[in-house]
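Quarterly update, task 2.4: uridine-5'-diphosphate-bound model.
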Amino acid sequence: MATNRTFTMLKPDSIENGNIGNILNMITEAGFAIKAMKYTQLSEEQAKAFYEVHAERPFYGELVEYMTSGPIVAAILEKENAVSDFRTLIGATDPAEAAEGTIRAKYAESKGRNAVHGSDSDENAQIEGEFHFAATELF
Ligand code: UDP
Ligand code: MG
C-alpha cells in the first residue's frame, strides 16, 4: 500500500450515536477518497490482535470490551499525505484536547470512546488495512 493511504474505523460510539453519515461527510469533504469500506463487528480475538501494541497498558481490557460492544465501520482512505492529514482531521486522542472542528472534538464522548481510529504511520496503515480487507475489496 502506498504512502497516500490510511486506515480508519468509526468506533462503536459513533454508530450508537447516529454519527456514521456526519463523520463520513467530514472525511470526504476533507478530500479523502474511500477505497474500501465495510460495516462489521470485531470479535474479541480481532480486537485483541488489532490493539496488541497496547496489551500492557491499563486500558487494554476496557478498550477491547468497548471495541467489540457493537458494530464499526472500517475503511481505507486515499489522499495525498493521508496518514498525517487524517490524524489532523480526527484530532487528539482525548476530545478535551482535540482542536476545534476536528472529528473527535465534535463527536467523541471521552478519551476511550473517541469516535474514530486513524493509523499512526504508513506502515501501520498498510498492516491495519490488510487486517480488515482482501485485495479484492479495494477499489
Ligand atoms: N485509549 C484509552 N485510554 C487512554 C489511551 C487510549 O481508552 O488513556 C484508547 C482510545 O480509544 C484510543 C485507543 O485506546 O483511541 C488507542 O490509543 P492510542 O494512544 O493509539 O490513541 P489514538 O492513536 O487512537 O489517538
Ligand atoms: Mg494509535
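Highlight for this quarter: The mean pLDDT is 97.
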